[in-house]
């Protein structure tokens, strides 16, 4: 049996990433896959990119990873973009959209947000018809088995960890490392089974919550006069999305 750690949405938060990577190391996990959004929101996008490149077997593109490489539309994005080196921008531009593989006989697909776009948001409370589209193939997805749709789909983006089953198909979200919006602890998932095996055998999905130094993460943001600091502090300390009204 092998274990794959699935992490996502680090958003420039190095204390959270460090805590999660330490937890992964303590569990003797053989592979780490990142589902994107390395950058933005938090102050250390550049440091996170370097750490993810060194730690992860594969990194998939997130919506922030996409928009930060383009002409910035607002000042906050311009600030975050300015923190990156040219080689890091190239790295983000070249990230793949999705990853298909077998584990314990199940075709698994991982992407950031949906099979159609890194910018399409699918919530666990959306209508079932909308959630079922997460198993569709598209011109963006890898489709290693042609028209066959995946048995298991995992994604990030919404910063809410969950698992749901639909008549033999499983949809899960690994939550967020650096900007969780459920509880104020970093989140990731572990897939356990026979990696790259088409033979049906036991398989599991486990969710991990990791406490980290939130005050240190806030101090890092203050030290560099990061824009939208108050909104960032609120999200880290309350796990409530900045766009929601109190």
From TrEMBL:
Stretches assigned to the Calcineurin-like phosphoesterase domain: 3-192
InterPro entries the UniProt entry points to: Ap4A_hydrolase, Calcineurin-like_PHP_lpxH, Metallo-depent_PP-like, Pesterase_MJ0912
Stated family: Belongs to the metallophosphoesterase superfamily. YfcE family.
Name the UniProt record assigns to this protein: Metallophosphatase family protein
SUPFAM superfamilies named in the record: Metallo-dependent phosphatases
Gene3D superfamilies documented for this protein: 3.60.21.10
Signal peptide from the UniProt entry: none
Highest taxon of source: Bacteria
Organism per entry: Alkalihalobacterium chitinilyticum
């Amino acid at each position: 049996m092998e274990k794959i750690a699935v992490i996502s949405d680090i958003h420039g938060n190095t204390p959270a990433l460090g805590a999660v990577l330490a937890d992964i190391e303590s569990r003797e996990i053989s592979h780490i896959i990142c589902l994107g959004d390395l950058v933005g929101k938090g102050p250390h996008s550049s440091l996170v990119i370097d750490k993810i490149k060194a730690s992860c077997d594969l990194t998939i593109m997130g919506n922030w990873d996409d928009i930060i490489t383009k002409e910035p539309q607002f000042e906050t994005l311009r600030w975050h973009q300015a923190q990156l080196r040219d080689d890091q921008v190239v790295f983000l531009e070249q990230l793949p959209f999705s990853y298909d593989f077998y584990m314990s006989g199940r075709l698994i697909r991982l992407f950031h947000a949906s099979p159609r776009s890194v910018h399409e948001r699918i919530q666990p409370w959306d209508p079932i018809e909308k959630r079922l589209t997460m198993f569709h193939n598209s011109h963006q997805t890898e489709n290693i088995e042609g028209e066959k749709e995946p048995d298991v789909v995992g994604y990030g983006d919404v910063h809410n960890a969950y698992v749901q089953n639909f008549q033999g198909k499983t949809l899960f979200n690994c939550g967020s490392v650096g900007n969780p919006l459920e509880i104020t602890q970093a989140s990731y998932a572990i897939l356990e089974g026979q990696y790259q095996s088409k033979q049906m055998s036991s398989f599991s999905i486990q969710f991990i919550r990791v406490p980290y130094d939130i005050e240190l993460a806030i101090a890092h943001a203050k030290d560099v006069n990061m824009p939208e600091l108050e909104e960032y502090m609120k999200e880290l300390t309350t796990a409530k999305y900045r766009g929601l009204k109190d």
